[in-house]
């Protein structure tokens, strides 16, 4: 099934506006995730917001699989954040400059996260030799719960512990993760190039990765 693509500039090519999401709002949304299906605030026009009001007992909001692609000239500034992997290693987005990166927001009890996990691991194995980095961002779990999920699904790429919302807050300046799972692709300059809201369909994510891998490593070459 062909997934529709939207092409529009990403948010946040400069400082956050006065109307942007505050750290308090993001953390409040994460605190409520344990009891409510909502991860981040949605507008009344958003179909995810409607689902949040009638979640049928689900403990997540299943995204609709929509894909947002951002043209290179509209990607704004690189995302910036620091975090800690479940391994205890400190991680900075600056460490990834020069490499395409796939960020996947997830948690263990999320049923769609389980659906997409084998495809994410398969794509990681396929693209790692070409320098593509996969990184999970776990918004809810303790280390033990996250590691059990990774063992169960054979996940070998690292995940960041983000119960405090630091990574989520950084990403809301650019492409807000409105549901779990959400997958974001960063280009070699660390800029948001694409987002999949909901389960990352394998062929769709592979195409988005290939687009970034095929782009010139030096942005100046795009103008040549």
TrEMBL record:
PROSITE patterns: TAT, THIOREDOXIN_2
Residue ranges of domain Thioredoxin in the record: 70-214
Subcellular localization: Cell envelope
Start and end residues of each stretch annotated as Disordered: 1-23
Biased composition (Basic residues): 1-10
Pfam family, one: AhpC-TSA
Keywords recorded for this protein, A-Z: Cytochrome c-type biogenesis, Disulfide bond, Redox-active center, Signal-anchor, Transmembrane
InterPro entries in the record: AhpC/TSA, TAT_signal, Thioredoxin-like_sf, Thioredoxin_domain, Thioredoxin_ResA/DsbE_sf
Protein's name in the database: TlpA family protein disulfide reductase
Organism of this sequence: Citricoccus alkalitolerans
